[in-house]
Design brief:
Layout (H helix, E strand, L loop, with lengths): L1 H12 L4 H13 L9 H15 L4 H15 L11
Helix pairs in contact: 1-2, 2-3
Length: 84
């Protein structure tokens, strides 16, 4: 369930809708330690930093998540829809 939550937030950070990305950035900024909301690229960096920090004890889960996310996001036609 925890990995699903992080995956959903990542999908929202790369959504086509600017308002959705801003709201997702706000969510990421509230994950302790709290931080300021900045540009989209900073929000992605912050997301990965916070994800890595929260799950640093489980290296296999980190690797699996990064692998799955990279395969999904490598698809240039990727677009989040109601089924995601």
């Amino acid at each position: 369930i925890l990995l699903n939550w992080w995956t959903t937030v990542l999908n929202l950070l790369v959504d086509d809708n600017n308002q959705v990305r801003k709201l997702a950035s706000l969510v990421v900024s509230k994950i302790p330690p709290e931080s300021d909301v900045k540009c989209d690229s900073y929000s992605l960096k912050l997301f990965f930093d916070k994800f890595s920090n929260k799950l640093k004890e489980d290296k296999s889960l980190l690797f699996a998540a990064y692998f799955a996310w990279s395969m999904t996001l490598a698809d240039n036609d990727y677009e989040m829809d109601d089924s995601d």
